[in-house]
């Protein structure tokens, strides 16, 4: 349309279309005066192809004006403002990639869980956890950089990259996993926000006052739900406010990190004044007391402290009953953060894991054990509220390193995405990895606690901060709020992108939204799933779920890069050169290992979810061709397999019917016998190749579109026939089918059997083309050593939806030509249509054969072939040729002679027309020769009058000698007819009620003069039978008794 409009303007008079000529012109800096000359004269050679192949200048102009704006927040903001701004991507590496990645990576886990992980796993264990996770994300970032720089990445970010690299099945599965991961990330950040609020900012705001974990979980559920609803309203009302606050939230994160490092430097000079109270070697919860002592002396009077009342049952006296452990051990007060030079690193090298409820004890601290432990008083100590082990900590920590996709998701806003994404993402990962590794060294508190009750409700990382712990508390609170809002903003848009791709039918409703494109329905679903995470009410339980989905996404990013690299497709030309397929495989292996290391049951659930989505898209999803790597991998695998198959012919044990189905199309280009495809489907228990072919008469230039529009594919889909289709245009059907028999297939995947329908109307046809085509097809398949199957009354065969409740499949084994006759019933019985049919095998014995021994031998042969069938031997008695057979043979020959006469008359008419044409040609040539001067060589006529008269006299002379009605039948034909009649009588008697009859198909005569009689013999052989399959072997064994 674009080019056609432009050409119309060019040919129009001057001045017409001047207003919009520049907008519609395909040329850069072109004007209306020069363009007609340029296109009309210089490029006239290509003017007929300009619609399908535009000029290079037009193509470059389209590329130059291409704008890749993210289909997300920016458009929604413009729609809300009512102003459409023409924005040019101006974001650089630092603002567009580095800072967003930093904001997403540094989050709730860093502030709330890293100190506990270090205290529980020790410095070496936590260093291993941080290193594994950071290496995993670094390798993924390298793979992602290669994919992101291999062309333009539109909206959708990582989902777009994976789906276009691995296909719609993998793309949809991983896209939904990424969506679920982003949604549960929102739950994680909201739970982190509420934990900071109720633990450090407003501890008195709890609704459930009971001092147990279940009450705390209920508080998290109540406040988390309220927070989720509030955030969802903010996202629904105006996304622009979320984006404007993004810089504020990022400033909070940066300020918190800087306060932490300032505090760490301060500890070198002056360690923070936060102490921990120990009773013996046990840590006490010091939010319930102020003084770390049993008694206190005021004005020379000894009075009990608050700590005394926690372990003793009455007033202070020497006879009072106290906890035995409290009585036997002394109180010690130590620094919570001893400082870098205190040697505490050596003490915290190794981890201290334990089951839930275990009291936390300081190693190398003396204590006296109590004889009778007091469970009631244990509430005053610090203890593990969950069972801790290394793999659990991996799953909890991994969400801290997610967020590396933030830069690629903003590719439309970047000035140079192919440069900024690799540099910004990898620098952000290296920076955050350095920060996290340093945190493991700085945050080496001897108290592996999360809520820090030993530090008077201060976070462990907070007491490191300078100038006040409130910097960390407020900074982490706003950081979690911002991250939660970003998750609730990004997840619905990701779901909307998946829904609009149309690969998952039931998600299409989520592709719609408000008038400005805001994904309202996707936001509602996101809030619902996010609420599930909040109802879990435990940050430690949600974190592994989040880890699974992100690890699944990262795994497929690495797989996509590795596949594309190994395939070496011409389109794989990333600008980022520092990648290798081994790194991608290492990253993929590390992601898979981390999935099962952190939580094997969550990993299995994630794999099952992704697998179900994959199979659903494969079964019900829309067919998309995105040039993905999986398709390229299939092509490479197919090429390799075909080359291997060419090396040697298949063994008999590997033989299976590779069927070439010869179909005929009607005038509407519909398959004339669709049941032929149904029968092919039922026959494919061998899982072999199927090629459905047809021939159109004419030339390819005139009927090329009909060949492409041939409805073979839809017919195959309707009959559930899996295979390939091919329509050939040829001057006549005979040549077309001959070409298909010779050349169909490729390499080792060539057909070894041909299936066709019996030409039912060959007797009524005006010409003998149907008979000749059929017989020549039989001869060509025999010469090509291919099996042939001919189905009579194919329209009476059962469809794929029918179920034959009973009946038999009868095999009449007359001659052995490879065993295909016995293999076909077995293959049919594997299909549900024929499953309840019993197989019967009949063989014919002559008078001098031992029929009893033949039956025993055949039963033993079938036993070795592992075929279950009923065996029956039929004796053919030698009888004289009946008058009926003699008369039938005579009628056949008379009919053949009559057809020859009819054909002769038609030939004479054609020859007379040719004679008239030659005379006219000769007269014109003679006139031209006289004008020029008589050329020495004359063109001879094809037919002269004398030739025609002589030929006609010969034919009439022959008929005069042998009168048609006084002729005697040929004895060879009489014997053949006798065999056909007698065999037909036996077959009809034994198999008239069977569901299918399989017969050996006799070969055509070597002398082509008997072709017309051959069809009569086959008609007589099949007379009185409904469903018949004539089978002719290909000359090689297809079934064996050996394993």
Automatic annotation (TrEMBL):
Compartments it resides in: Cell membrane
Disordered: annotated span: 1-35
UniProt KW Membrane keyword: yes
Compositionally biased tracts (Basic and acidic residues): 1-24
InterPro entries attached to this UniProt entry: AA-permease/SLC12A_dom, KCL_cotranspt, SLC12_C, SLC12A_fam
Main location: membrane
Gene Ontology terms, MF aspect: potassium:chloride symporter activity
Short name of any one Pfam family annotated for the protein: AA_permease
Reactions that this protein is recorded to catalyse: K(+)(in) + chloride(in) = K(+)(out) + chloride(out)
Domain SLC12A transporter C-terminal: 788-1043
Transmembrane segments: 91-112, 124-147, 188-208, 220-239, 246-265, 386-408, 420-441, 461-485, 521-539, 545-566
Listed GO CC annotations: plasma membrane; synapse
Keyword line: Cell membrane, Chloride, Glycoprotein, Ion transport, Membrane, Phosphoprotein, Potassium, Potassium transport, Symport, Transmembrane, Transmembrane helix, Transport
Domain called Amino acid permease/ SLC12A: residue spans: 97-267, 381-660
Topological category with respect to the lipid bilayer: Multi-pass membrane protein
UniProt keyword Cell membrane present: yes
A GO biological-process term: cell volume homeostasis
NCBIfam families membership: 2a30
Family: Belongs to the SLC12A transporter family. K/Cl co-transporter subfamily.
Protein name (record): Solute carrier family 12 member 7a
Organism: Amphiprion ocellaris
Classification of source organism: Eukaryota, Metazoa, Chordata, Craniata, Vertebrata
